[in-house]
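Collaborator request, handled under Task 6.
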Amino acid sequence: MMKKTVILSSILILLMLVVTGPSWSQDTPVWWPSAIAEAQKDGYALTTPDEIQALYASSDNYLIVDVRPDYEFKAGHLPGAKNFEIDLGDRLGLKPQKADAFEKILGADKNRVIAIYCRSFR
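C-alpha cells returned to the collaborator:
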C-alpha cells in the first residue's frame, strides 16, 4: 500500500487533472496530447471541465482533491473538494506523515473515481 502511495505521489504533479473553468478554451492546449499519453502510460486519465461536470451529475461515488495551497483552496474550490496541498518538494515522493494524510483523504473505497486538480498543469 505504501509503495503504491509513493508511486502515486511521485507522478501526482505530472498527472494533475486540469480544471480551469472559464479559462479553458475550445482549443486544445498544445501540451494536452502529450499529457494524456503520459497519464495513460501510468494508468491514469486526464479530464476536461465538461467531464467533471458530468461526474457531478452522474454519480456520488467520486472524490475531488484540490492540490493547491490552502489559501487558494479557501478562496474558492470545486464543490465537495478536499484540500491536500502538493508542492514542488513533493515531486519525488511524499514524506511518510504526508503520505498517511493523503491515504486518509483517499479513504478506503479504492474503486471510486478520484479527480485531482490544481490551478495549472505544473
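The cover message to the collaborator said: "The mean pLDDT is 78. The chain has one domain: 2-18+33-118. Please let us know whether this matches your experimental observations."
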